[in-house]
UniProtKB/TrEMBL annotation:
Protein name per Swiss-Prot or TrEMBL: TRAP transporter small permease protein
Transmembrane feature ranges: 12-34, 46-67, 88-113, 133-155
Single Gene Ontology MF annotation: transmembrane transporter activity
Any GO BP annotation: C4-dicarboxylate transport
Amino acid sequence: MRFMKRPNDFLFRALVVVASLSLAVLSVLVIYSVVMRYVFSDAPDFVEPIALLLVIVIAMFGAALKVREGGHIGLDSLVKKLPPKGQLIATSFQHICLIVFAVMIFFGCLQMVEATAEDRIPIIGLPESLRYCIPVIASVCIAMFSIENLLALFAQKQK
């Protein structure tokens, strides 16, 4: 269990920092854009594509962070009413579904990275594939966090 915890602790902290910085930058960009548009009547073009990238980072990394914390979407009210063995099965199934979902995101977005590698995001000129690299990274984190939670679940059961 410890072999998963250390790397996942590092990943978790890195995701928190990146997602937090992305949220801060997004907030500043939106304020800047609003001020420029309504005070100076000069809306900057670059804000929207950068903001879209930041929203993808915040959403995908935030989802991975919630998986690590066990705060992902679940039917807790139903699961809590099940007997202990049923709770174990339901929670295990939930984590397996998350792992399958992460694998599907990984391969789907990896195909999009390859397909859009030559394209550029208008205005800012960054590779279009950057939009799909973010979910690739997040899907690896989601899978790793789900595996850690699954291992912890069975380690706890054996005690």
